[in-house]
Amino acid sequence: MVPENFLNALLYFAVSALILSFAVWVFFRVTPYDDSEEIQKGNGAVGLTLFAKMFGLGLILWSAISHNDTLQETVIWGLFGAALMIFSYLLFDWMTPKLSTREELQKGNMAVAWVQSGIFITLGVIINACIS
What we know:
Elements: H1 4-30, H2 35-40, H3 44-66, H4 71-95, H5 101-106, H6 110-131
């Protein structure tokens, strides 16, 4: 017989993986270039920002799992945190019209990638604290 904690861990993992996958899919849709194609071409700037998005989302999901008693609460807070991350990305892009982060990332500008990655990781930490 499999212990209940083991099954719960698998369930929380599966749900978190689905939320992460969905959020990354949304991020892929809101960028004007093809993230997968840029990564396949070896665009390190796009790869770095994708890493930071997933890391920030992982922090959010960690908090959602750690600070809620039910799977339903975890899903709600996980989706809420992911939505905040996506909204923050769009807001940052809108608030920096002189810096075309999308074009710069597509060109492989690593300085822009590091700045944007720092923002995503910092947002993940802040949202993590807000939902805990």
